[in-house]
Every structure is written in structure tokens, then in C-alpha cells.
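Hi V.,

You were right to ask for the full record rather than a summary. Here it is.
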Amino acid sequence: MTTASDGLVVHGFWCERYVYRSHEADSVASWASVVTDSPVFAVLHIVADAEEMAAGLPEAEQQRVIGTLDATERADAMVALHLGVPCGLALSCGATWVEWTAQPVRFLRLAVRSGPTCAGRSGRRDGFGAPMVAADGDG
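Predicted structure:
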């Protein structure tokens, strides 16, 4: 990450996704995280992940999920993160419950990154990277 820093501290955003096996959120099916240096990219990671997940749902459910990701909600989340306030999204997706969170964090600068660019640094936002799998494992 290369963003505003205070000597040994680098400011960034920690994003997590929890997928629960049921709407009661009593059993975690999967967990993933991603780190970014931008509130815009933090929100875009969440939106990309939710859109990918929605693609596997029936049409009516797809529209409901996509409808929760409108431009106003995205802008509000980006502003909140920029101001230092965590944000999140929780959706009922088929038989599962999914929660995304993003929060401002400070990382200790332990080493300066040099060398070739990582594949994930291409500027393309693909969500959290881990594929969404149904609780029964059938995808």
C-alpha cells in the first residue's frame, strides 16, 4: 500500500466478508478479507463481491441484491470511510446470510515493497477473490 503515512504508520482499509450457512448466522461457511489504501476501492471490493454472488441467484433475487447497491449507498459508504467511520452491508442471499464490513485501520510499515508488481495490483477490482460457494458445497 502506498497512501498517507505518519512515519511507521500507513493508513488503509480492512475489509471482511463472512458467509453464514443460514439466515440465523449461527455457522460460518467462509471468511475472506482484503486490504486496500482507498475508501473507494474498499467499497468497490464489496460491490464487486456482492454482484458476483448475485449472478448465481434467480432473477428476482438478483434484482433485489443489485438494488441494494445503488449509487447513493455506495457514495455514503465511501464518505463514511473517508471520515474514519466503518461501514458494512448485510444481505440475505438464497439460503445464506452474507456480511461485508470495511473499516479504516493503521498498519505498521514493516518493509518497503519493491520488485515486480503483484497480479492483484492491476487496478481491476474483483471483490474478495475467493469464489462464493453454497453452504451445501454445490456452488
